[in-house]
Amino acid sequence: MAQRSDTVSIAYIGFQPIMYAPADMARLAGRFFPLSDRIEGGAGEAFDFGDWFANWRIQLGIDGNQPMPTHLKVEAADAFEALIPWEQLEHAAIQFAMDGGPLPKGGPIRLYVPNGSSECLNVKSVVVFRFLLEEGRRGEVSYGFKQTFSPDDMRLRR
């Protein structure tokens, strides 16, 4: 699936990925606020990750008795990836706009996770959310740049 730079691909357990525009995600959250309300020195508009997720599950028709994910895997346009334990997302915010318009750089959205494994993990240029249910990895955290190698690169490393 081709990834447009102005949308986010969201993949939930057992569902095909769905593309969303940041403004549609914000509407689904039900309310948004100045990012500075949640992140000191933050600029722009954001919405609460938990509010958005709860409403998104309802929109998909996911039964409230279904298990919650254990992790959110976030992928950015620059190949940065973060695996975030579900418990750390309680105060997460998603920045979707700056002065009422799209993010000038680092779009389509930016995820802020205060009080997590790092003082305030923030992932810019988020293009993919993957909700994972992996009990064996519960609590596991990782973040960094995905390393990709072509077959030619692999042959040269031998």
Output the keywords.
single chain, 158 residues, alpha+beta, ten-stranded mixed beta sheet
Describe this structure in words.
By secondary structure, the chain is an alpha+beta fold. Helices cover 17% and strands 34% of the residues. The protein is built from three helices and ten strands, in the order E-E-H-E-E-H-E-E-E-E-E-E-H. It has helices at 22-29, 49-60, 151-157, and strands at 8-11, 18-20, 33-34, 45-48, 71-76, 80-85, 93-97, 109-114, 120-132, 142-145. Strands 1, 2, 3, 4, 5, 6, 7, 8, 9 and 10 form a ten-stranded mixed beta sheet that branches. Strand 1 and strand 2 form a beta hairpin. The protein is globular, with a radius of gyration of 16 Å. The N and C termini lie far apart (32 Å).
Write a concise synopsis of the structure shown.
Helix content is 17%, strand content 34%.
Q: Name the shape in a single word.
A: globular
Q: If you average the pLDDT, what whole number results?
A: 88
Fraction of residues in β-strands: 25-35%
Given helix and strand content, the structural type is alpha+beta
Largest sheet: 10 strands, mixed
Q: Span between N and C termini? A: 32 Å
* Rg, Å, rounded: 16 Å
Please describe the topology of this protein.
Blueprint lengths: L7 E4 L6 E3 L1 H8 L3 E2 L10 E4 H12 L10 E6 L3 E6 L7 E5 L11 E6 L5 E13 L9 E4 L5 H7 L1
Parallel strand pairs: 1-9
Antiparallel strand pairs: 1-2, 3-4, 4-7, 5-6, 5-9, 6-10, 7-8, 8-9
Helix pairs in contact: 1-2
